[in-house]
Amino acid sequence: MKKTDFVVRFAGEGGTGVVTSAEGFAQANAQVGYHVQTFSTFPSQIRGGPVWTQTRISTELVLSSGDELDVLVAFDEYAYENHKDEVSDSGVIIYNAEEFELESDGKSFGMRFDELARSTGNARAANMVVMGALAYLVEIDQQILEDFVTKRFTRGRPNDQQIIESNHQALSLGRVEAEKSGFSLGELEESNPPQVEQVLINGNVALGLGALAAGVDVYIGYPISPATSLLIWMENNLPGPGKFVHQATSEIESITSIVGAGYAGKKAMTGTAGPGFSLMGEGLGLAWMAEIPLVVADIQRGGPSTGLPTKTEQSDLLTALYPGHGDIRLPVIAPGTVEECFYAGLYAFNWAERYQGPVILLSEHMLSERNQNIPRPDVSALMVEDRDTYRGTNGYHRYESWERSPMPIPGGPGSYVANGSEHDGMGDTTHRPERHIQMTTRRFSKLDLLSDGTYESEKTDASVAVMPWGGSKGPALGAWRELTAAGAELGWYYTMFLNPLPDGLVEELKEKELVIVPELNYMGQFSSHLRSLGINAESITQYTGLPFKERDLVESISQKANIQQKEGVTV
Q1: SS3 of 537, please?
Q2: Cα–Cα distance between 198 and 202 in angstroms, integer?
Q3: Tens digit of pLDDT for each residue in 390-413?
Q4: What's the pTM value of the predicted model, to 2 decimals?
Q5: Edge to edge, what strands does the sheet with 108-111 contain?
């Protein structure tokens, strides 16, 4: 039987081609219709350190980066020692014989990556040597990779053809070396190209494209991993008439600047990670009090403090909900896939404009660095919401009513005082108890305008359900499918609209005996939020800095479900 799925990990020192190899292999296979997904993890130093990137290729939609490896490409001995145990029993290890040698173990063979590359006249073609070897192991047509190389390096430069030919030669040399090894993993089944046009992008780019589709005018950010790439992408793609991108000197400058931009009538956004988000708490409180639309993308990483700056985690949820002191609870949208990152960027702006306040877009490292092919969004079909601005006379007081009201823009009619202190109808400071009651009620009641979020549900009659959030969606869905295929009576629920949760979802979840929440944090943050809403929720937690594996979730979900079964619940 042909293989329908293939997982390869490239591991070595940063700067040796580990990431380039993985992404190139993914791009080549995506171009001919395979579903691909990559995952990268690396240390926090600027250069060097142990890096590994994983690429999964499949004839079906890829839900996770894969549980075990078909091939490990070890660029040095440290990589071999630290990753060899994750290779499947039938897998193969390719190692760089210029760095170290291994005794024959029946599952590994060496190649001299750099020496083979230099023999082509292109010392930078080592990653193509590796790709050629991989193509042989799963019988991928050499023409697929050669076409990818030709397309990639045809750039209108005088030496294009020389580069293309040297890379083609490198692919062939790698293929020959793999053939000499005698290893083969079996043929990869031909791709079944999706019926819709695909684009291969990562989560941060998808998020930025969603923001552009929503009409973002201003992006101001301070570099911080893993949000820096979003700032760089905006610098390269947002500039134009009426648009503004700026690298701030701090996260405090970022948040206060976009508060000002939102106050001036612009659609404004910043991006950060946990430590920077903590510094934005006071500015977010001001935007909540003054009712100023803006979007903050928090690309989560391990914490607290500096924590794990280049690893993934889902531990900022409670901070996102309650970022400031006093009575405040912000809208939170947390995408779970690269495709959802695009729509989250759009919906975050729509929500901000509709309820006139800050919205938190809660992504995470595993999505920011993940490359995946997704259907190209039909921008013409998107609904974009704009500012409800006041256009009457100068007698208008924005904060007079108990409900959201049109927003005056400086230079236009109406009073446009924006005050972080409690205020009267005009916006001037007041300490009168009845005004604080009215304004607090007004601010929270506006959240009712955001009840249009959607959610997924399957097997809704089951008394036990699985409900992940964010980037844990893929592995959890894979585990749920495996369990239900084996006969387990388990429900499935998922939404990226975490606050407020969609209409109907809370009531459905309240009926469950148990809602199992896989999430990457120690505290079980989403399940604690669900319990505060009257839902019996328990978390499956992991805080390694790495995503869940499907097989681990199968075991963990089974254990929790079996506990409930002893109490009379059928699973």
Answers
A1: strand
A2: 13
A3: 999 888 999 999 999 999 999 999
A4: 0.95
A5: 108-111, 87-96, 69-74, 5-13, 50-58, 35-41, 371-375, 198-202
